[in-house]
Amino acid sequence: MNVNQFPILGAEIRELDLSSDLTDSENLVIKNHLTENLVLIVKDQNLSPKDLEKISSLWGGAFEPPF
């Protein structure tokens, strides 16, 4: 995994396949970058709805809009 931070807001994570199972250390690195940068870009992912559910549960879960 390679992380490129942007000067003002956000970061891009490269060399990461979110459809595979993340290790605890990978998950911790991603959570820390999400907390620090607020926005993460992970390009070139081919994710199923199940993959998206799994990933969102690692980082806070999905939510229903209030309206």
Q: How would you describe this structure to a colleague?
A:
The protein is α+β, with helices and mostly antiparallel strands and 67 residues long. The chain has one domain (2-58). The chain is 36% helix and 15% strand. It contains two helices and three strands. It has helices spanning 24-37, 49-58, and strands at 2-5, 11-14, 40-41. The chain has a three-stranded mixed beta sheet. A hairpin with a 5-residue loop joins strand 1 and strand 2 (11-14). The radius of gyration is 12 Å and the shape is globular. The mean pLDDT is 91.
Please provide a brief summary of the model.
This protein has 67 residues and is α+β, with helices and mostly antiparallel strands.
Estimate what percentage of residues fall within beta strands: 5-15%
Portion of residues within helices: 25-40%
Please provide the ordered H/E string of secondary-structure elements: EEHEH
Radius of gyration: 12 Å
Average pLDDT rating: 91
Residue ranges: pLDDT <50 for 5 or more in a row? none
- The neighbouring-strand order within the major sheet is 1-2-3
Distance between the termini: 37 Å
The count of β-strands is 3
Shape: globular
Q: What's the helix count?
A: 2
SSE class: alpha+beta
* Total of domains: 1
